[in-house]
Write a structure and sequence with these properties.
The chain is of the alpha+beta class. The protein folds into two domains: about 45 residues; about 180 residues, no CATH class. The protein is about 30% helix and about 30% strand. Strands 1, 2, 3, 4, 5, 6, 7, 8 and 9 form a nine-stranded antiparallel beta sheet that branches. A hairpin with a 7-residue loop joins β5 and β6. The longest helix is centred in the first third of the chain and has 45 residues.
Length: about 230
């Protein structure tokens, strides 16, 4: 009787182990499917499916600031609205603020479905408001108020037209490595779901990433570095 009871227990244990094994095996394809889906999303983001007949324009940007003033008072008014400059600045101001001047700020459009006062890129010179690096800020107007959509520690390199009339951006991201050492990452940003997102790295201080494999590996490492230091926010 005892032997029979012991045999039943052993059989139950064996059956339980087999069932657990089946459950683990059945969950594996689902995990792989999820991973494949994520890969497909990233791949789709990289695809440049332009409609037939669309002429894509690339506008290179010279990250220069001028001493001659803005050519439209609208830019001056927008600067004041961002609260990034001091409209009452004088030669005797010593609070660390910056005058609302084209010597320190420059404007670029990015959303061609809206006017410049509702959507603009603002390039800011290094040292403004005691921030040591150049910055590129992306503003959009929502419900009558300017909202900061994105910020990049670096500067605008190119704007590339898109069928949705919202430009792709090539930006140079600045990375302070410490001990007077620096790096720069040229990356592609694309507008999606209300803000700009990292798509891929184009190159660095050593030049462009020429091969697909190098670009893929570099993009992964650079995106991790950018996220870690919040160089794009």
């Amino acid at each position: 009787m005892k032997l029979r009871f012991l045999s039943i227990i052993i059989l139950l244990l064996l059956f339980s182990c087999k069932e657990d094994g089946k459950e683990i095996n059945s969950s594996t394809p689902a995990s792989n499917e999820k991973a494949n889906t994520n890969d497909e999303i990233q791949t789709n983001d990289l695809k440049d499916e332009l409609p037939e007949g669309f002429n894509q324009d690339t506008l290179k940007t010279e990250a220069l600031f001028t001493a001659g003033g803005f050519d439209d008072k609208l830019y001056y008014e927008l600067l004041i609205e961002t609260h990034l400059c001091n409209p009452n600045y004088t030669d005797t101001t010593s609070d660390g603020s910056t005058p609302c001047s084209s010597r320190f700020f420059n404007f670029y459009p990015y959303n061609h479905k809206r006017t410049i006062d509702d959507a603009f890129l603002l390039q800011i010179k290094a040292g403004v408001n005691k921030y040591p690096y150049r910055r590129l800020l992306v503003f959009v107007r929502e419900k009558g108020k300017l909202i900061l959509m994105n910020g990049i520690v670096g500067y605008l390199v190119e704007r590339i037209s898109r069928p949705n009339e919202i430009d792709d951006l090539i930006v140079a991201v600045f990375d302070d490595l410490g001990n007077d050492k620096f790096d720069r990452y040229d990356v592609l940003l694309r507008y999606k779901d209300g803000k700009y997102h990292f798509i891929e790295a184009i190159g660095d201080l050593k030049g462009k990433f020429e091969t697909a494999d190098l670009k893929k590996r570099a993009s992964k490492a650079i995106q991790e570095r950018i996220n870690e230091k919040e160089l794009i926010f």
